[in-house]
Amino acid sequence: MSGADAAGTMLDAARAWLAQDPDELTRAELTAIVDAAADGDEAASAELADRFGARLQFGTAGLRGRLGAGSNRMNRVLVSQAAAGFAAYLREKAAPGTTPLVVVGYDGRRNSDVFARDSAELFAGAGLRAVLLPRMLPTPVLAFAVRHLDAAAGVMVTASHNPPDDNGYKVYLGGADAGSQIVSPADAEIAAHIDRVAATSLVPDLARAAYEIADESLISAYVAATAAVAPATAGAAGMNWVYTAMHGVGSETLHAILDLAGYPRPRVVEAQIAPDGRFPTVAFPNPEEPGAMDLAFETARAVGADFVIANDPDADRLAVALPDETAPGGWRRLTGNEIGLLLGWRAAARAGERGETGSLACSLVSSPGLQTVAEHYGLDFHATLTGFKWISRAPGILYGFEEALGYLVNPETVRDKDGISAAVAILGMIADARERGESLADLLRGFQETFGFFASGQVSLRVDDLSVIGRIMSALRQAPPARVGAVAVTGIDDLLTGAGGVPASDVLRLWLEDGSRLIVRPSGTEPKLKAYLDVRGSSAADAQERLAALDAATRTLLL
Q1: What is the mean pLDDT of the chain?
Q2: Locate the Alpha-D-phosphohexomutase C-terminal domain: which residues (predicted)?
Q3: What is the spatial distance between Cα 109 and Cα 64, in angstroms, rounded to a whole number?
Q4: Which residues, in sequence order, are CB contacts of 449 under 8 Å at separation 6+?
Q5: CA–CA separation, 146 and 91 (whole Å)
């Protein structure tokens, strides 16, 4: 196809899109680009090619992308097609004579409420019973609602901790899926229905109908269930701590839970406590990103806090920080593995006290320390692919986590990561420690003394050309390294064909002679090759030395 023909095709696609777009803002945005491209503006033509040369693909993570007009953006046309396609899937799977219930939630990002209302109207128009949460709420509340209402499915409109210009569409299934996120083959089946809608129907022609608004009793039930995770003990009295919602939706729900559970309210980061889809104080609203918690640390220094807790914008992740004289600014954010192992210790100890059986689970790139905890308490252990769609499905799960600040502490209530219930669990651990005259730092030391000195790290290679990642993975498979630095490789698991009961995935896991582990995989969300490093030492210092050596050797291997 010639350049002129390609440009004409993009113009045709854009004009067809304009004809069915119900959003005044994106229509105006796209009209300006179309007019410029029609006048020969090369930049406008390139912009059209970016917006219409591909389509956001629906997968196990649902949809996620930049806001804007076009098939390769998040907008009302794309979301309407997704809702209509998902409705067709649910009708196809429903038992004869039944009316599936779908519950829809949304966070504080731009257009989240609009996408949620569109979806609810379209679900109802397709003959489903559609229930919309009463206001912007955390993702875990939606995940809870799917189970609590015995819904066939749930949709959460959120892009979690993505950049401010993004939004997304996250899907859960009830019934046999027990309120977990979708996995294959449901993703492909839903995507096929969405594609069929996009090819055969115009958005203005899709049937719409009235939906229900969920009763406040649903929110109260989540608050009660989460407060019960760790009711405050005497050690909670006098807690001096700081909380940030990172411009997200966690604050209202968390504060209601704190009041019911009996914890003192925190000092809040005022500039970040109210929902604001512009995210004016953070370029990347992810607690893991450098600088994202600077305002929280500033507040903590001002009030002499003992610890800091942060949620990401949709409150499904949790970050924790503590004073550390050796850290810049005197505060250090704990890694996801450090928090995950502490919460795993809590879950295993509670299971032991209650005589419960079951399993602890984590993603295969998270710390192997959780397996040590499970074995110590006689529990089963499962390493899964990354993502809570897998972790939540671990047989007999009592607790699960992944190193990217995600924790599942109450699987009977929420089958997804939940940064609010995890915050309550951490508060409970800190309160119990305070009763013993100990601190959060003492809890970390206690874990090491009980289970060993684990340390974890990451090496990331960002690329402009995705083929570079494929070439590196192929080279590692074709010529597996015999050593990583000075340490011999004793075994390699290639998960591309599946291994150890884990579904096939583009992951290489290397076991080293000194007990260290190196995992290499392409990122599922960014143009990165990621390496996950795990070591175990005889002391904290020894573990850090081993980690530094493995980090240097990994960079040499990959870079």
Answers
A1: 95
A2: 505-544
A3: 13
A4: none
A5: 17
Domain termination site, one of 413, 441, 469: 441
What sections of 21-75 are H helices per DSSP? 24-38, 42-52
Domain holding 186: CATH number?
A: 3.40.120.10
User: What is the rounded CA–CA span in Å between residue 356 and residue 409?
Assistant: 15
> What tokens appear for 81 in the block?
């097609």
Query: Could you read off the pLDDT of 147-176 as tens digits, one per residue?
Result: 999 999 999 999 999 999 999 999 999 999
State how far the Cα of 143 lies from the Cα of 133, in Å rounded to an integer.
11
Structural domain that includes position 345: 216-441
Q: Is the Cβ–Cβ distance between 393 and 501 less than 8 Å?
A: no
Residue 6 lies in a domain: no
C-alpha to C-alpha distance for 249 and 67, rounded to whole angstroms: 20
* Token couple for 194: 């969405």
Token match 């990621």: residue? 530
State whether 403 and 479 are in the same domain. Answer: no
* Residues 244, 246, 249, 250, CA torsion sign: negative
Distance in angstroms (rounded) separating the CA atoms of residues 423 and 250: 11
pLDDT band at 504 (very low <50, low <70, confident <90, very high): confident
pLDDT tens digits for 420-434?
A: 999 999 999 999 999
Residue 500 confidence (pLDDT) = 66
Q: Which residues are catalytic?
A: 160
Looking at residue 272, its pLDDT comes to 98
- What own/partner pairs with CB < 8 Å and gap ≥ 24 does 1-6 have? 6/49
d(CA 408, CA 340): 9
- The number of angstroms, rounded, from the C-alpha of 426 to the middle of its chain's C-alpha atoms is 19
Q: Does residue 80 have a pLDDT over 60?
A: yes
**Mean pLDDT of the 522-548 span:** 92
Q: Map tokens 């209302």 to a residue.
A: 117
DSSP code of residue 516: -
Confidence of residue 527 (pLDDT cuts 50, 70, 90): confident
